[in-house]
Design brief:
Blueprint: E1 6-10, E2 14-20, E3 23-31, H1 35-48, E4 54-61, E5 67-71, H2 81-90, E6 96-103, H3 110-127, E7 131-135, E8 137-144, H4 149-158, E9 162-168, E10 172-179, H5 183-191, E11 197-202
Antiparallel strand pairs: 1-7, 2-3, 3-6, 4-5, 4-6, 8-10, 8-11, 9-10
Helix pairs in contact: 2-3
Length: 204
């Protein structure tokens, strides 16, 4: 089966830790779906770890991580955000944020030391997480008369569609989720059922 409608992410937040010459690097990984969630997580960590010197992060959004950012938060350019982002790509995960909070230990680590520290803290957080595969779905609303309910139900069963919401009044209304790879076929077959009215709720 073609799996170009799936992506890898983590199922719940996880943490990691790396220590070097007295400095502590605390890594926090979060599954996220938009920049608003990202801002909230970062601000919460800044509030919690207000004594920490740096709160560096990287995130990837979108099926292929096409929306991304890496932030060094005061560390030398390229020594923090980039190695964090590099591990997100290495683990092939997206819709994810990793923030590494650094408590300075008094000894400078140098460029290579910093890169290694932010990388290893991120690796620890990701290895402590559960990586899952998610399916990208489109959502549609189908309105139909009771007389064709059996035809609708047959199509739902055939493609293992998820009914997110069902309303039974004079007509029936189903809000359904369809995996992206099946959307065109399902829409075409639904369109051939006389009396079925389709509305697109969301794509991907």
């Amino acid at each position: 089966m073609n799996n170009n409608d799936t992506y890898r992410t983590i199922d719940e937040p996880s943490e990691g830790l790396f220590k070097d010459k007295g400095s502590k690097f605390l890594a926090y990984a979060y599954p996220v779906s938009d920049e608003e969630q990202i801002k909230k997580h970062i601000q919460t960590l800044k509030d919690t770890h207000y004594k920490a010197r740096h709160h560096c992060y990287a995130y990837r959004l979108g099926q292929n991580g096409e929306q991304y950012r890496a932030n060094d938060d005061g560390e030398p350019s390229g020594t923090a955000g980039r190695p964090i982002h590099g591990q997100l790509m290495s683990f092939k995960v997206t819709n994810i944020l990793v923030v590494v909070v650094r408590y300075f230990g008094g000894t400078l680590l140098g460029t290579s030391g910093l890169i290694n520290a932010y990388k290893m803290a991120t690796v620890d957080a990701l290895e402590n997480s559960k990586i899952i595969k998610k399916i990208i779905s489109d959502r549609f609303r189908i309105q139909f008369d009771y007389t064709i309910q059996s035809l609708i139900e047959r199509l739902i069963k055939e493609y293992d569609l998820s009914i997110d919401n069902a309303v039974y009044n004079v007509d029936c209304t189903y809000d359904i989720s369809v995996r992206k790879n099946h959307s065109d076929v399902v829409l075409e077959k639904m369109g051939k059922i006389e009396g079925a009215r389709l509305t697109v709720l969301s794509r991907g």
